[in-house]
Design brief:
The complex is a heterotrimer of chains A (463), B (280) and C (289). Chain A is an alpha/beta fold and 463 residues long. Chain A has 19 helices and 17 strands. Chain A is globular and about 75 Å long. Chain B has 14 helices and no strands. In chain B, α8 runs antiparallel to α11 and α11 packs antiparallel against α14. With 289 residues, chain C is an all-alpha fold. Chain C has two domains: 39 residues, no CATH class; 222 residues, MetI-like (MetI-like fold, Orthogonal Bundle), CATH 1.10.3720. In chain C, 74% of the residues lie in helices and 1% in strands. Chain C starts with a helix and ends with a helix. The chains are: A alpha/beta (463), B mainly alpha (280), C mainly alpha (289). Chains in contact: A-B, A-C, B-C. At the A-B interface, α1, α4, α12 and α13 of A face α2, α4, α6, α7 and α10 of B.
């Protein structure tokens, strides 16, 4: 045998053996492929389709207890997921025929893996989905209808009673519930209370208050004539722009969702307000390319900004030495309080073969005890009203000087609006973001920037 | 050849300046990996306090040995397969004549020109089907991770260019002596192509070790994940956890630095430039 | 006639055998997916419902869209800048590192270090370095120069991404050229020196011709790779400010994420056609035979 031939044969054998070993190790009942392959899947899918097609009758009447393994894709993070091992064990105890295979994924690449899986008929049974992905997925019929799966009830009570109006609307697409919100993202004002107090200024409640407060506390620390410390972070993305738009009484699209409306007078003056902050130096233009805020908070370039609940965690880990100095407040508004509404929804892909069992899982983890874990373990704000009013969420937070942040967040939730659920939403979001860049640094007027974005949005909507 | 002092100083100065430019960003990453979260944005060049917590977190929070082992196995397999079958194919393209040779080579090149992201779904579907037919291969197996990269056009192209510079006379005389192409390949070509093979091995190893998107998509279980996919889980939603991410980066780079030092010393330095060795 | 053809096929058997494994892997795992993708480029397809055939509409929509043309322009800028500088730096450092200097192994390792790290990690670190208060501006300040907000300024954002890419990538060219330099027979240099050629003449008449095939490789592969730039843009700028750093593959991935597989595939094939033409020309010119 020639000198090279033997190694080659060994190598080839190793490849095959390794392939076999690798999969042998994963030949556990938790292999997701078994739940979606071949004939058994179609039978179960047909049964599920029949059950759901029967309309909102009581699904409890015919509980199917054939053993099932649920694949759950979770981006909360292994140590910070509300789907803790104990909670899952308790769920499996209550539903002994259901085994849960929870898989960690990272948020940045979640949607690529999810889309690939769905397009290949290999979707998970439950997935944590960012609410900004819902427009695309819902309009492409990727998500199952929770209304029919649940019969309209969750844990014994109507779903509609367990969420505030904002989240409930965010879960709705047409006449379906395409997701069940588990945590929400809405923007409040984070501010350095110690600096405002030193300057003798009250918490800003209106845009004018905000402008005045920003101007008053901003400083020129290095003496070059430009304000460089204690500024307000102005961010050029749709999340922040829409907050000011809604507060001004404007909306993103016309009521029939066919044309852009954000370039109307409300939108223009909202953008002009932000431009004015940047222009007079009290606002710091902070793009997404600049990364997270903590570096600017650590060296105190920024002393006020708007953002969502997860920033509480970022503050505590990024600037622990500023504990006690920060507070949150309802974001200052011009005509009415307003914010964008995002967050996480637990969804069941329409191609899942175990939708009934999947709903049981989702329902279980939306109980107040499990929703509280969203706060205590994941550091996010639970979306169900009961959890928001529970004892763990109404404890004073020492980092925020004894304040109870969930009060402000719950209040904000009531006036938050989700992005329109049209299939062109991503294009509209991109168009707005791209045009905000030039406007905020003063290169184009607000009207022109928004008109350009509106033209692109209209074109996308027309397709 | 003794160079003049100014020339020598000049060379060292340029090398040093360039080396500093190469290393400076790593200095930032390295120091960050030893910093506590509150210290990371303080702007100080030295960690204060110095902490191993980030590394402990990386090893504790992730099933690190599993990820590491998977990366080693996958990368080793990919390198081995590419060195053997890629060089063989490259030799054929470089030195042998057969109908359709250039056409096949150009078709190979075409596959480099399509971004991998578009092949993701069709390729995943193929793996799903393969897994149904033979459970030992396909989705969530070493085969699934390795197969698409088992013989890479990039490597074939690289080796083809190297091998083209082997003088035809050497091969002709071996053929006249009655050697088969196979014997020529292993007795003449492989030894002569030492630097090229080392280069191929290094690049293929790096690409396989750092490969992220395909292993992310084709693996579902923690038991099969490779290091980059595992390290990505250190990230939080919308945000980077700097200390741990930098620790993870340092840990991921270390094996490659070692592999590189080993290979470059043995092959790139070891062979005398261009000397045609006695073989047989 | 038929016998000659048959004879050529028979003589080519060793060639076919040696390329067979490569052909198998390439066809099954690359060519078949590419054909699938090519079909999708002629459809509107969201991955879930059956594809709808629309012929060349996707291509027409893309190539008549000023935004997409700007995206192509950004990509071309990236490629031209990168390929004008990268290989030159690579060759220069390879020549330098081929000298007998002390600590050669250490220098080679530092030059190659950036290439060993994943592009995502490199981009993540450089994003921090480019910040207004980041290390780059601090270093510039010590030389009395004032930096700018590199990634937020539409005129500097794309060049900044290019610099990061060159920093990360030219180590690849260094190593390739280094290995190729080692393969140039020393006798050629000895002969040239005997003929009275100085260092520069030796470089022009021995080194460069000896590197001919390697240079073709570096440029073909480099251009193919640069055209597909994605990771750095994804991490550092997300195509912003405005669309000044948006590249073709970035747009492709976004279309993919919006479940517009037809459009994404069409972008891929436009890229393929551009690269196929360019590579063909390069190989023809560079190799000539």
């Amino acid at each position: 045998m020639s000198r090279l031939t033997r190694p080659v044969i060994l190598l080839a054998a190793a490849v095959l053996a390794a392939g076999a070993c690798g999969s042998a190790a994963t030949q556990s009942p938790t292999s997701p492929v078994t739940s979606a392959s071949g004939a058994p899947a179609t039978a179960t899918a047909a049964a599920t389709a029949a059950a759901t097609a029967a309309g909102p009758a009581t699904p409890e009447a015919s509980i199917d207890t054939t053993p099932v393994t649920l694949t759950v894709w979770d981006y909360y993070g292994k140590d910070t997921t509300p789907f803790t091992p104990d909670a899952i064990a308790a769920f499996q105890k209550e539903y002994p025929w259901i085994t849960v295979d929870r898989q960690d994924l990272d948020w940045d690449t979640f949607i690529q893996k999810f889309n690939t899986a769905v397009a290949s008929g290999q979707s998970p049974d439950v997935a944590t989905l960012d609410m900004t992905w819902i427009p695309t997925l819902a309009s492409n019929d990727v998500l199952a209808d929770i209304k029919t799966l649940s019969g309209g009830a969750m844990n014994g009570k109507p779903i509609a009673d367990q969420y505030a109006a904002g989240p409930l609307e965010a879960m709705t697409y047409g006449d379906k519930y395409v997701t069940a919100m588990s945590d929400f993202d809405a923007y409040v004002l984070y501010y350095r209370a110690d600096l405002l107090e030193k300057a003798g200024i009250a918490v800003p409640k209106t845009w004018d208050d905000l402008r005045a407060a920003a101007k008053a506390i901003a400083k020129d620390a290095n003496g070059d004539g430009k304000l460089d410390k204690y500024r307000y972070a102005v961010r050029p993305n749709t999340f922040h722009f829409s907050q000011f738009l809604f507060q001004n009484g404007g909306s993103l699209l016309t009521p029939d969702n066919t044309k852009a409306a954000f370039n109307g007078p409300e939108g223009v003056s909202a953008l002009e307000f932000n431009q004015s902050l940047v222009a007079d130096g009290s606002g710091l233009y902070w793009s997404d390319a600049s990364g997270d805020l903590p570096p600017a908070l650590a060296d105190e370039r920024v002393a006020m900004f708007s953002d969502g609940p997860y920033y509480m965690g970022l503050l505590k880990s990024g600037v622990p030495d500023q504990a006690g100095k920060w507070r949150v407040a309802i974001a200052p508004y011009s005509k009415q309080p307003g914010s964008y509404l995002g967050g996480t929804g637990l969804s069941i892909p329409a191609s899942s073969a175990h939708q009934a069992a999947a709903w049981k899982f989702v329902e279980y983890f939306l109980r107040p005890e499990q929703q509280t874990l969203v706060y205590t373990v994941a550091g996010a704000m639970p979306a169900t009203t009961a959890a928001l009013q529970g004892p763990d969420l109404t404890k004073p937070d020492p980092y925020f000087g004894g304040q109870i942040p969930s009060v402000e967040f719950l209040e904000t939730l009531k006036t938050s609006t989700h992005f329109p659920y049209v299939s062109a939403w991503s294009d509209i979001d991109t168009a707005i973001g791209e045009n905000l860049d030039a406007a905020l640094v003063g290169k184009v007027t607000a009207q022109k920037a928004l008109d350009d974005a509106a033209a692109a949005a209209d074109a996308a909507l027309a397709k | 050849m003794r160079r003049s002092l100014p020339a020598r100083v000049g060379i060292y100065a340029v090398l040093l300046a360039a080396a500093v430019a190469m290393v400076l960003p790593f200095w930032w990453a390295l120091t960050t990996s030893f910093k506590l979260p509150g210290d990371i944005f303080s702007g100080s060049p030295i960690p204060d306090p110095f902490t191993l917590a980030n590394y402990q977190d990386v090893f504790r929070r992730l099933p690190f040995p599993t990820y590491f082992l998977n990366s080693v196995i996958v990368s080793g397999l990919v390198v081995g397969l590419n060195v053997i079958f890629g060089t063989a194919a490259a030799y054929a393209f470089a030195k042998l004549r057969f109908p359709g040779r250039d056409l096949i080579f150009f078709l190979f090149l075409l596959t480099l020109m399509v971004p991998f992201q578009v092949n993701l779904i069709p390729l995943y579907r193929i793996m799903v089907e393969l897994h149904k037919i033979v459970p030992a291969i396909g989705v969530d197996t070493y085969f699934g991770i390795v197969a698409p990269g088992a013989v890479q056009v990039f490597g074939i192209f690289l080796m083809r260019q190297f091998l083209r510079s082997i003088p035809d006379e050497v091969l002709e005389s071996a053929r006249i002596d009655g050697a088969s192409e196979w014997r020529i390949l292993r007795s003449i070509v492989f030894p002569l192509a030492g630097p090229g093979i080392a280069t191929l091995a290094i690049f293929t190893f790096i690409a396989a070790w750092n490969d992220f998107l395909w292993p992310l998509v084709v693996t579902n279980s923690d038991a099969m994940r490779t290091l980059p996919v595992g390290l990505a889980l250190l990230a939080r939603r919308n945000t980077v956890v700097w200390g741990q991410t930098m620790a993870g980066t340092v840990v991921a780079v270390a094996p490659m630095v070692i592999v590189f030092l080993l290979l470059q010393r043995r092959f790139i330095e070891g062979l005398t430039a261009g000397a045609v060795k006695d073989v047989g | 006639m038929a016998r000659t053809i048959a004879k050529r096929f028979r003589a080519g058997v060793p060639g076919y055998v040696l390329v067979a494994p490569a052909v198998l892997v390439t066809v099954v795992f690359l060519v078949i997916p590419m054909i699938q993708t090519g079909y999708w480029s002629l459809t509107v397809y969201n991955g879930v419902k059956p594809p709808q055939f629309v012929g060349l509409q996707n291509y027409i929509d893309l190539l008549t869209d000023p935004r997409f043309l700007r995206i192509i322009q950004n990509t071309v800028f990236f490629v031209v800048m990168g390929m004008a500088i990268g290989p030159v730096l690579g060759l220069a450092s390879a020549v330098l590192l081929n000298q007998s200097v002390r600590l050669r192994a250490l220098f080679r390792t530092t030059f190659f270090l950036p290439t060993m790290v994943s592009l995502v990690a490199v981009a993540t670190v450089w994003k921090m370095l480019y910040q207004d208060q980041g290390m780059i501006n601090q270093v510039l300040a010590t030389f009395g120069l004032s930096g700018t907000d590199w990634l937020n300024d539409p005129t500097t954002a794309l060049p900044a991404v290019v610099v990061t890419s060159i920093w990360q990538g030219f180590g690849f060219e260094t190593v390739v050229f280094l290995a190729a330099l080692q393969s140039i027979p020393r006798e050629f240099y000895d002969a040239a020196r005997v003929d009275g050629a100085g260092a520069w003449a030796q470089f022009r008449h021995v080194t460069l011709p000896g590197l001919r095939y390697t240079i073709v490789f570096v440029y073909v592969v480099g251009i193919i790779g640069s055209f597909q730039v994605f990771d750095q843009v994804f991490v550092m700028t997300q195509g912003r400010p405005g669309i000044s750093t948006r590249t073709m593959v970035y747009e492709l991935v976004e279309q993919f994420q919006n479940l517009r597989l037809g459009t994404a595939s069409a972008i891929a094939y436009i890229l393929l056609i551009i690269l196929a033409v360019m590579s063909y020309i390069q190989i023809r010119l560079g190799e000539g035979d």
